[in-house]
Write a structure and sequence with these properties.
Layout: H1 23-40, H2 66-82
Bound molecules: zinc ion (ZN) (2 copies).
One zinc ion is lined by residues 43, 45, 48, 50, 63-65, 68.
Length: 83
Protein backbone atom coordinates (compact mmCIF):
# COMPACT_ATOMS: atom_id res chain seq x y z
CA UNK A 1 0.00 0.00 0.00
CA UNK A 2 1.03 3.60 -0.37
CA UNK A 3 3.16 4.91 -3.17
CA UNK A 4 6.66 3.54 -3.83
CA UNK A 5 9.85 4.89 -2.27
CA UNK A 6 11.23 7.83 -4.26
CA UNK A 7 14.68 6.23 -4.27
CA UNK A 8 14.29 2.51 -4.74
CA UNK A 9 10.56 2.11 -5.49
CA UNK A 10 10.33 -0.48 -2.75
CA UNK A 11 7.05 0.01 -0.95
CA UNK A 12 7.20 -3.24 1.00
CA UNK A 13 8.40 -1.75 4.29
CA UNK A 14 6.61 1.52 4.16
CA UNK A 15 6.73 2.45 7.83
CA UNK A 16 7.63 6.14 8.04
CA UNK A 17 5.14 8.97 8.37
CA UNK A 18 6.44 11.16 5.56
CA UNK A 19 5.39 8.97 2.69
CA UNK A 20 8.37 9.61 0.43
CA UNK A 21 10.80 6.78 1.19
CA UNK A 22 10.90 3.22 2.38
CA UNK A 23 12.19 2.69 5.91
CA UNK A 24 15.81 2.18 4.83
CA UNK A 25 15.93 5.33 2.74
CA UNK A 26 14.20 7.40 5.39
CA UNK A 27 16.93 6.42 7.84
CA UNK A 28 19.62 7.29 5.30
CA UNK A 29 18.11 10.66 4.51
CA UNK A 30 17.95 11.53 8.22
CA UNK A 31 21.62 10.63 8.54
CA UNK A 32 22.54 12.85 5.60
CA UNK A 33 20.52 15.73 7.01
CA UNK A 34 22.30 15.41 10.34
CA UNK A 35 25.66 15.40 8.61
CA UNK A 36 24.77 18.44 6.47
CA UNK A 37 23.73 20.29 9.63
CA UNK A 38 27.20 19.68 11.09
CA UNK A 39 28.94 21.06 8.03
CA UNK A 40 26.64 24.08 8.04
CA UNK A 41 26.80 24.75 11.78
CA UNK A 42 27.62 28.31 12.71
CA UNK A 43 29.57 29.25 15.84
CA UNK A 44 27.18 29.24 18.81
CA UNK A 45 28.68 32.41 20.26
CA UNK A 46 26.23 35.25 19.90
CA UNK A 47 27.32 37.69 17.21
CA UNK A 48 29.80 35.31 15.58
CA UNK A 49 28.87 34.08 12.14
CA UNK A 50 31.90 31.90 11.50
CA UNK A 51 31.35 28.31 10.51
CA UNK A 52 31.96 26.04 13.47
CA UNK A 53 34.53 24.20 11.38
CA UNK A 54 33.53 20.59 11.74
CA UNK A 55 36.30 18.40 10.30
CA UNK A 56 33.99 15.64 9.12
CA UNK A 57 34.78 13.31 12.02
CA UNK A 58 32.94 12.59 15.23
CA UNK A 59 30.78 15.02 17.09
CA UNK A 60 29.55 18.31 15.75
CA UNK A 61 31.50 21.40 16.81
CA UNK A 62 29.66 24.26 18.46
CA UNK A 63 32.19 27.08 18.25
CA UNK A 64 34.54 28.29 15.54
CA UNK A 65 37.51 28.38 17.90
CA UNK A 66 38.61 27.58 21.42
CA UNK A 67 38.61 31.29 22.14
CA UNK A 68 34.91 31.52 21.35
CA UNK A 69 34.14 28.34 23.25
CA UNK A 70 35.79 29.88 26.32
CA UNK A 71 34.15 33.25 25.78
CA UNK A 72 30.71 31.63 25.58
CA UNK A 73 31.50 29.68 28.74
CA UNK A 74 32.43 32.87 30.58
CA UNK A 75 29.26 34.58 29.33
CA UNK A 76 27.13 31.67 30.54
CA UNK A 77 28.79 31.84 33.95
CA UNK A 78 28.29 35.59 34.16
CA UNK A 79 24.63 35.18 33.17
CA UNK A 80 24.13 32.51 35.81
CA UNK A 81 25.52 34.83 38.49
CA UNK A 82 23.34 37.72 37.27
CA UNK A 83 20.26 35.56 37.70
ZN1 LIG B 1 13.87 2.95 -0.67
ZN1 LIG C 1 33.00 32.14 16.80
Amino acid sequence: MGRPCDVCEDASDYANGHGAWCEAHTARSRHEDAEAARWDAVCALEGCENNAGWDGMGRARKYCSNAHSQKAYRLRKAAAIAN
